[in-house]
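Q: Focus on the shape:
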Amino acid sequence: MSSAVFSTSAAQGRPFVFDSENEAEVCPEPLGVELFTEARPPQRAGNTGLPRAFQDSRLAGVTAASRLAVRPAPEMVSSGIAAMDTLTGGLPRGCLTEICGPASSGRSTLMLSALAAATWRREFCAVIDASDALDPQSVASAGIELDRLLWVRCGENSHHAEHRLEQLLRVTDLLLESGGFGLIVLDLGDLPPLTARRIPLTTWFRFRRAVEHTPTVLLAVERQSIAGSCSSLLIKLGLIKLGSIKLNTSENPERPMNSQFPAPAHAQLLTGLEITAELVRSRMERKPVRSAEITFASKTAWAG
């Protein structure tokens, strides 16, 4: 009996042996006729009962798919917004979560809420700011403990988006390798989508493997989803409507009228946003999750 050896790219260095005695045959044998007439040896003591390919000494390190252990579900932590936790179950540790949406869609609101919730849990957090867009006053107003926050300003001394993106990727690698953070935020929201899409999929896969089996929540804030299948949770945000009041009327008692410099009659003051959140993808469940939506509001914190 002759044999032929075939190798595939999915198993380099692990050849599979197939009988090639009847290579010329195209049609299978009729029903009722055994395809293998060769006598099978009796099962030896200690035989695992696995297929012959897995009993080969050259494949001793290969585990049958039926014997792979089921990966436990990740621990979920609060995002700081009750409605969002109801929708997603929270933010998963050891996973990559994407939050995407256009400008004024609530990306910063959700990011600041997640940071505040993490610092309340006495965890250290890091924000890798690609565009130097984080507002320290908004951070303090959100209730974030500043002594537990690391702010990396990638765009402070650079006007080129490509250079800011390179800095962001380097810093992310360093922080993931160092460990010790409960939440790491990649703020790509103000980068042009074409620039953000220059991050190769292999980089996102490397981030996913680096954060795996750690207690860190890796959160990417973007205009559009760019991590593909590497993200375990994908949330899409959108703006429903703006809340506002006129500046120089009795509707706004906190902003009294100035008779010397009256505000224009058409001017209005933003008081809040009404935001919709859609769960696009979740790998937290065995079966595919159906698309679901919620709405929540974000109110303006008066500065003076």
Summary: The two ends are 90 Å apart (CA to CA). Confidence is low (pLDDT under 50) at residues 1-38, 286-290.
